[in-house]
Each structure stands twice: as structure tokens, then as C-alpha cells.
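Minutes, project check-in

Agenda point 3 was the complex the collaborators sent over. CS summarized: three entities, 739 residues total, and the question is how they sit relative to each other. Sequences were read into the notes so everyone works from the same version.
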Amino acid sequence: MRARWIRTGRGLTCLVLCGALASCQRPTQPLLPPPLFEFQGPSPEPLASRENNLPAQEIRDADTPATMEDFERYAGTIRILFGRGSAELTPIARAVLDRQAAWLRAHPDIRASLQGHADELAPREQQFALGEKRAAAMKFYLTARGVAPQRLFVTSFGRERPVATGSDEASQSQNRRGETVLLGLPGLSRP
Amino acid sequence: MAGLSIRQRTNLADMIRSQITPCWNPPQAEDNSGHVTIVMRIRLGRDGGVLGTPALSRIGGQTAANGAYANALAGSVRRAILRCAPLRLPPELYDAWADVELNFDPRDIS
Amino acid sequence: MRRSILSAVLVPLVALASPLRAEGPLHVDITQGVASPLLIAVPDILSGSIPDVAGGEDAGAALAKIVRADLVSTGLYRLVPFDGHYAIADEIAFAPFARAGAQALVLGRARPAGNNLLAYDCALYDVFGAHVEASQRIIVATAQWRRAAHKCADMVFAFTTGDPGHFDTRMLVAAQDGAIPGQRTRLVSMDYDGANPTELTQGKELVATPRFGPGSRRIVFLSYVDAAAPRLVVADLDSGSTTALKLPEGVPSAPRFSPDGATILFSLAHDGDADIYAVNLASNSVRQLTSEAGTDTSPSFAPDGSAIVFESNRSGDSQLYVMAPDGSDQRRVSFGAGGHASPVWSPRGDLIAFTQMGDGALRIGIMKPDGTRERIITSGSRDEDPSWGMSGRAIMFQRTAAGSALPKIWLTDLTGKVQQPVAVSGAASEPAWSGKRP
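CS then shared the predicted structure for the full assembly.
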């Protein structure tokens, strides 16, 4: 195979990401707070043609603000589960993502972080890739259901954020999951 | 010096080898240690004790890369000799074992 | 030299005639030994209390205790017990140690050296020859008094094994607090034995896969300051400055420095596919090294920079592959039972450590770089994340007992016979072991 040189296209505004790193031995200059991440790329498209077909009143009426709670209430859950080592969407997962897609179509100003997670039964590094594969599968499905890809941001936590500990299958099956976390809600703190 | 048969010389060498082998604790060799051998010359008293300090007469297979390993090997050899002394050897053949050259070669150590 | 050549020639000749005259020294070839721990004594030499050292305990006794712990942890030494102690001015006779079977003797004398400094005179003696094999005057700041003992143990290790010691080193761990979910993760650095912990991050954001660069002052880790977009962050522990690497779109993970510190290898997952990349830290140019479908991750350079080992599931389950630094000549090297993951090349270059998957368990194994002589050296239910000591003779790893046990850091020798937990309080995972400290 041939190796390829790639130039990073997406410039980040701040190179020096001043995390809360304390010096080991010497006193250091005060560290800047971490900058908020700015999403690159064009603003979300209105998606008017497809989303006009939706029964919007079923999703919300004028008095319901767009909140994480409303999203979760409507979709039933923000979380879908996967099989061991798999990024395949189960019928149940598809049904949940159908509802999530409908809600997202009705709220075209809201963006979402798709967060893939993996169980603790396999070595750490490969689980980052598996989490990304799960989140990418969610993005692919939601995009096919009419959510603009520019609104969806794939990330992976690997096995670093388990919801259940314990080495048994029942616990670990809860960790093989994908979560849809809304971004850009007014007043919503960063996920 | 008394004349010795081949068999007598071989037997003497076996007696010395069997006494020093259990005392030799060589450092663990790795692939990049190479094949280092150490030759030590010792003089023994009639009681089998080592006279003076064992003299390192030759290091074989030493390279720039394995110098530290070779030093550790030489240290293990010196300790082996001193730890096993006095050697128990037939006094009537003292002339034959008063002066011994020991060739330490870790090739058979797994 | 001449003598041995002469004798080699003589032997076939003398076989013909017997008896014969003994010519020169008697030659004896010794090709076998007993590879067993070196019997060593490290008696306490009392120094009295020294300000800012050992919390007011006797400094000499406290230092000797650390030297003993360091040496024993490697499995290469067995302590010869010695009751009693010496005063700093005592003449020390070798005979009692020889009688007790000690082959080597370590004597360390601690003294205040003024100006908040501690002097530790460390000497290694050959008990039978009654002579000094190595000695060193170690001067450290009293606040770093433990380093004096570690440096002394490093000297003993170097002179008895031929390899640099790994005792005066640091370790990074990801420490967890609180219950799941909502657990916080802090990056903590500490001495290799768990002493002197320093908190590097405060748990506001998730951190993962910390790794040291060459030496002990530069690190890289995965930071979730923005949970929606994790970054690889390079940090300088002296200045405290941190830099997020500019990388192509995707989720980066599994970073590891090149031996010269100029490059970081990592895995980048994008659209369900993960490949190995290299980023040059000076130019920020990014190079893709693998492009097979599936997950390629956990890259680790050989210490001479001549090859990279990584993990891939391109053949089905996870196995180890080796390739040239430009990504060419990729070939599978692991063929033992089960899956193989998280490879790390030994600093000596002679072995690769990895996490083996099989029978529902994770275990630490080692193999030669061509995949031969594979050995599984731990037997826990979840042992993973191996990290080499700079001696190439010890491995730190994460062990999680069955059930809901907290992950802990353990240390093992290469046989797996000598294993012990490292004293880190609370839950700690992902140990990263530093190289030489300045």
C-alpha cells in the first residue's frame, strides 16, 4: 500500500488547548480556561421539503420548548443498545432512531452529538473504534431518515463512560450503546 | 609437575565444573546481548581456596551494544568462583589444579 | 589468548600419548549455571532523622527499605534477612553476610548535605571477594528523598543485570472517583511505586490513554474537554502548557510517541473505519499509514524506530501486525491462541507485550517481535493495558478482579512469577510508565 499525506482541512481556532494541567514541579503561568468548541462547516440546512410532511403538532405544540427532556419524552429514550462487538442497528434501535429523526426534523435548529460507547470486555483501544462505528451507524440511519448530516456529530467514548460496572453480561450489555445528545439548545450546558 | 592422563585431567575438569555450575547465576541474556564468553584465570591454594583475586583474562563477543551485559556477566562469573571456593579437589593432584583457566560460556543456559 | 589456542591444538595430539605432562593451567568450560535470584543483603545503616526526609523517621532505615522493595519487586533478587543495623560510622564486616549466603551487599549511608540536600552514598559489594563493584554518591533535594533510594537500586540493578534500572521513574494513571454513572476521571502522575502523586487534571473532563514521550516530561492523552469532539492533547509537565493536535475529521485514540519524540502515532476512526496515522509534531503534517477495512489501532514503535507494531481485526479477530514506519510491508505476527490487542514494544526491542483475549478473560502476554515464544504471564480475569519499564524487565498493567471490583495497577516481572499491586489509592487504570527522569 502507499502511505498518503493528508493536510488537516478543518482548522481549529485555538491550537493551545489549555486543559487544567498542573505542573509537576515548577510553578507555571496561569492556564487559560478551555475554549468552547466551535463547530465548523455551514449552518444546518432548513430541510423544508421533507420536514413539511411531518405532523408537527404531534411532536410539539407552541408551548413546548425544545429541551432534552422533550426529545427524550418524544423518542422514548436517547439511548439505543447494540450486540456484543457489533455496530448493527437492531429493529428496536431503528424504531427509537425513527422517533429521534422525527423530532430532529421538527427542530431544524438543533444539532446532535451521536455518542458511541462500548463494553469493558474487550481491550481499551479497539473500543474507541467500535464506539465510533456505532455512532457512525446512527448518523447514517438518521441521515437516511431526513436529518441533515451537518447537524450530526459523531463521537466515541470507547469503554471510558460505562453506565454499568460488573463483569457480568447483564451489566456489560448496558454499556454497548449509542446516545443522542442535543447540542445548541438555549441554556443547555455543554454535554 | 606430575604427569596426568587424559582421563585424570577430564575428571578434574568435571569436578571443578560440577562445583562451580551451581554457584553461577548469570544475568538473563536477551537477543541483543550477543554471545559473550568470559575467561577467568585463578590460582588455588592447597585447601582449594582462591589465592588473590580472580583475574579476568579474556572477554569474547563483546560489542558496543552489549558492554553492560558483558560487565554483568563478568560480575556473575567472579561471584560464582568466590562463592564456591574452597573447591574440593584431590590433594595428590594439586599441581594439576593449582592453576585453572575457567571458560564461562552461557550458551546452554535457557 | 595464545595459551588457549595452543591447548586446542594440543588436545588431539595428546590423545595419542598418555600419560602426559600438564601444560599450563587446567582448562574448564562452564556452559551452564543456575538462573536464580541473586542473594542480596541491604542492611539498615541508621543516620538519625534528617529534616524533610522520611517524615522524621530514621532516613537511612527508610531509604534501605525502599532499596529492598525496589530490588525484590523485579524477581531478580532475593533478600538475605539481616537482623539488627549499623551506625553510619561502623566498619562493616563481610563475614556475617557471607555466612548468611548473601552474594551481594548494598550499603547506603545517608547524610544531610546542607541547603535542603540529602547525600546518599550507595555501594554494591561482592561479598565473597569483599570488594566494591560499584559505588555512587547520590545528591537529591530532601523533598525528593525517595529518589535517592531509587537511584541506588538503579545502580545495583544496572551492575548486576546489565540493563538500566527502572526505579527512578514516574507513572501516569487515569484515576476514577465516584460511582458509575457520573464517574470523574483524573490524570495523576506518581513515582513508579505510587509515591508522590501529582494531580494533572481535576476531573472536569474525561481523559483516557495517557502515554509518556521519551523521558518523563512530555505526555499525550485523549481529552474530552469537549465531549462531542475528543482531542489528542500533548502536555509539557514542566511548563504546564498543553496543545491539542490538529487532526483530520474523526475520533482519535491510542496515541503513542515515536522513540525520538518527534511523531505521535494514533488511530483515527471515521465512518466506521479506523486506521493508523502519524502526526509530525513540528510540521503538524498528518500521514495515513494503514487503509485496510476494519479497525487498525494501538500502534507502537520499535525502540530503534525501524518498525511499528499495531492491532488489526482485518483477518476477523484482533491480531498483531508489524509494518515499516511508512506503512509498507504489513504482516501479521501473532498466531497464538485467542485474540491479541494493545501491543507495546519493549524498550530493549526484544519483546512485544500485549493483551490476550480468550475464554472471556483478558491477560498480559509477551512475544518476540516475530511472534515466536509467546507466553501469557498473568492469570487474572481482566488484566490489560501493559506498559514497559525502561529496563525492559518489568511490566505495569491494569487488573480488574471479577465482579464490580475497582481497577488497580499491578507490576509483574517477565516470568509472571513475581507480581504485586502498586500502592495507588482508589480506582486507577491505564498505567503509563515513564523513561528516564532528568
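Noted in discussion: The radius of gyration of chain B is 15 Å.
Follow-up: revisit at the next meeting once the mutant set is ready.
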